[in-house]
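Morning!

As promised:
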Amino acid sequence: MVRHVREHLFRARDDGSARLVGGTCASCGRVHFPAAEVCPYCSNESCGEVELGPRGFLWLYTSVLRAPPGYRGAVPFGFGIVDLEEGLRVVTRLTESDVTKLSPGQPMRLVVDLLHTDDDGEEVSTFAFAPEAPS
Amino acid sequence: MSATVEIAGVGIHPFGRFDDESVVELGASAVRAALADAGISGGGFQAAYCGTVYSGVAAGHKVLTSLGLTGIPILNVEAGCASGAAALDLGVGAIRAGRYDCVLVFGMEKMPRGIIRSSFFEPWREEAGLAVTPAYFALRAQRLMVESGVTREILAAVSVKNHRNGVANPIAMFRKEFSIEQVLGSKMVCDPLTLFMLCSPNEGAAAVVLRRGDGSGTKVAASALRSHLPGSVLGEHTPLSGLVDDSAPPPSTLAARAAYEEAGLGPEDLDFCEVQDTDSARELNSYEELGLCSPGAAGGFFAAGHTQMSGAIPVNPSGGLLSKGEPLGASGLGQVIELHQQLRGESGSRQIAGARVGLAHTVGRGANASVVILER
């Protein structure tokens, strides 16, 4: 079994790709992530669900060299912000931790990444962005 | 017309690490000094506002209990890095409204050591590795490199400037000069930020007595506090995902605009500033957010030397947080005390000649941003 780091955060597809579970507001039309019942932009209380991704473009990035509080996975790991085609910027883990192999604006693809195995022997996964393989 | 607010006295406990003193003792030390400076050692203030983040329940009450100065209203205020300034804002507002003639504002902190675990982050974000405070700072630094002509050498040179200024400040934790090479060569924390480009969380306390103005003190020309607008993603309110909306002004800009309007002054009227240099890039962000230079111009503005002690608008003459360290509840009031002393010509070898107007800026988790303008 694999446990998602948080429920209702992302969905893994059989083809190996992934989608983020975002929210869309019927009142102002704006999207947000993670999905919430109340729109964080206009306070409207009836938001619907929308899947986001898998394509995006890298905006900013760095490499985390030491494990931060509460994190039990491997280091170093990549960390950055990706612009989604849906007009949202997502703070995210990156599968690439070598900053010399990343560049601003490069195409990225949403994937599922394993974080660690918890005390119950369950694998824990999260969403991450990987550099798009050159076609 | 609302009352003029002046600073009647200040007191500060040095910033550093003090294993033999409790946070209450740190606070009491600063409060006693401020009350003595204001000539009211036996009390006489009508309310007290205490800024702190990590000091636990009723911390301000414990300080004033230890000094036998209770009975008046005591409010403990948490606003992240702006906690001290938020406490000041409440005190200023209360005097202006005519509620009190004299109030005590203080802040103190004993920051945890090591990487600080913050309840700001939801547990899943910690588990996913997204609760990495210096990584957010690094992204901001990279943005300045992409958009504002900032280089790694400029990031290092900001740290060199502030450490050089801090050598002359007796309350600073690090009173030592570094070269650009030493800063660039210090341990990499999160690319592009190295260890010497980041401030150290530490301990300290600061206190300010405010009173209805009689013309003899330093005038509080403005005090403004703001939070973030929805829509931006790379601010102190992260980790949030947000719409791509670069037009959303950050909280520091909102606070600065409000403060300039309140004071009837603009950035061109400032003689010097104390700004939030949590890291080197954060100081450069402040140049743009406070209107010291135009958006996208921070790198060139710094490189031209304008913010050096010899420049047109020295920034962080105290040495900033990079040399003082950052005790959250006390840091904003520490800036205000630097302003007060500079305006009174009491800053010794780091005195800015003829200083008449100074600005203090903090920004941090929440997001919270504060701007205080003092005028002599």
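Chain B has a mean pLDDT of 96.

Hope this helps with the figure draft.
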